[in-house]
Amino acid sequence: MSSPFSFTGRGVSFDEDLSLNPLFARSNEQTALPQFQLPTDEMLPGTAYQIVHDAAMLDGNARLNLATFVGTWMDDQADRLYRESFDKNMIDKDEYPHTAAIETRCWMMLADLWHAPEPESALGTSTVGSSEAAMLAGLAFKRRWQLRRRAAGKSTAAPNLVMSSAVQVCWEKFCNYFEVEPRYVPISDEHRELDGHDLDRYVDENTIGVVAIMGVTYTGAYEPVGEIAAALDRIAAATGVDVPIHVDAASGGMVAPFTRPDLAWDFRIERVASINTSGHKYGLVYPGLGWVVWRDRSAVPEELIFSVSYLGGDMPTMTLNFSRPGAQVLLQYYLFLRLGHSGYTRVQQSCLDVAQHLADGIGALDCFELWSDRMDIPAFAWQLAPGYTDRWNLHHLSERLRIHGWQVPAYPMPDNLTDVTVQRVVVRNGFSRELADALLRDIQTEVTYLEKLTAPMPPAHRAHSYHH
């Protein structure tokens, strides 16, 4: 089969057909197919499979993708469970009541793990991913603020949400989609995460909430939720403006409880109203699963909760999506049962140990400076040592590493630090110390290559890489 894409310059040509190798096409089947229209006739399943298989074969090797937090491996029993349940529709609680009951068990386990005062009184739901979970948490913030303002006879015309400039793009989407003004607190060399500094310049009576991040996408760092809460306590005492916190723990929510159990970032802090995490990140499930949990029912206005009937009773539901897979919820429950607290601790600590080994190796090279000497989630960033060279940059190194199959993104930091470019590595379950050593060898090889340049490299082809 030929390549499914035809490129003209850097754009895709829309007038090229997809051609089939004669060995793949069966007798009387078409050997040329349009790329962007439905084919006129049917084809045999084997032929269609070969086309899709060969197209997907051109994707990268997930084990060598150090750009993403999203899980890429599960064990054989999980794969079997996935095959047995991929047809389950999570929203159809009437047809799949036991899957619905397992969903409830999962978010109640998370409520307990995150120290909800009364886990049985908490409220939670599974979502397609952390982005939907964040949208729901933000929507609950906005609706609660609107209800309070209306009850006081005040305007609801100008809600705002306060967060770090290093926030994940899902929060930008929330503010855009739900008409909330985003107020970004810029990070700096002195304040590399949102830490409560100058928060009173951004919070006012129209602030629906503050977002704290447990595992900043750019660097992997935890924002100090306790310090943010203390700053909001001071604001409340001085102005009467009482603002809740949502913790975006997409990554850290399934790491911190196991590797830093004494760190108070969750519902132990009274101002924390809700927390989200990604089941498909350090929850260790295949892509397509997020969770959001609220401290208690009072954190979610009743008008946002819909009641569905199952097992002869009623079950609250709050989602933006309707039909969606139920298999990932079952996979999450499988892992909760299989690993338990000790198993998750072992897995996450192993990832942290490998990440620290990598950081030590990269930090030992004269050309690099680690962005942080603290390892929170198993991810870290580094930059070129200031003034080290003008012949190459981290974008060039990123491109050189792709020769070996590695995807290690390079990208500029957010506003106020856009002149700083970093590279970042994310260590996920299954990335071994042996693979880490192979990456270190390849980094050293390519740095040696770049160091031998006698003239500056041309501008890197990729302005910056995707780093979700």
Question: What does this molecule look like?
Answer:
- It is built from ten helices and 17 strands.
- The protein has three domains: 53 residues, no CATH class; 258 residues, 3-Layer(aba) Sandwich (Aspartate Aminotransferase, domain 2), CATH 3.40.640; 112 residues, Aspartate Aminotransferase, domain 1 (Alpha-Beta Complex).
- Helix 2 packs antiparallel against helix 8, helix 4 packs across helix 5 and helix 8 packs across helix 10.
- A seven-stranded mixed β-sheet has the order 5-11-10-9-8-6-7, with helices on both faces.
- The longest helix is centred in the last third of the chain and has 37 residues.
- It has 468 residues and is of the alpha/beta class.
Distance, first to last CA = 32 Å
CATH superfamily of the largest domain: Type I PLP-dependent aspartate aminotransferase-like (Major domain)
Which class do the helix and strand fractions yield? alpha/beta
Gross CATH architecture of the largest domain: 3-Layer(aba) Sandwich
Number of helices: 10
Number of domains: 3
Fraction in helix = 25-40%
Integer-rounded radius of gyration: 24 Å
CATH class membership of the largest domain: Alpha Beta
Rough outline = globular
CATH topology of the largest domain: Aspartate Aminotransferase, domain 2
Largest sheet: 7 strands, mixed
Number of E-state strands: 17
Helix and strand sequence: EEEEHHHEHEHEEHEHEEEEHEEHEEH
Average pLDDT: 91
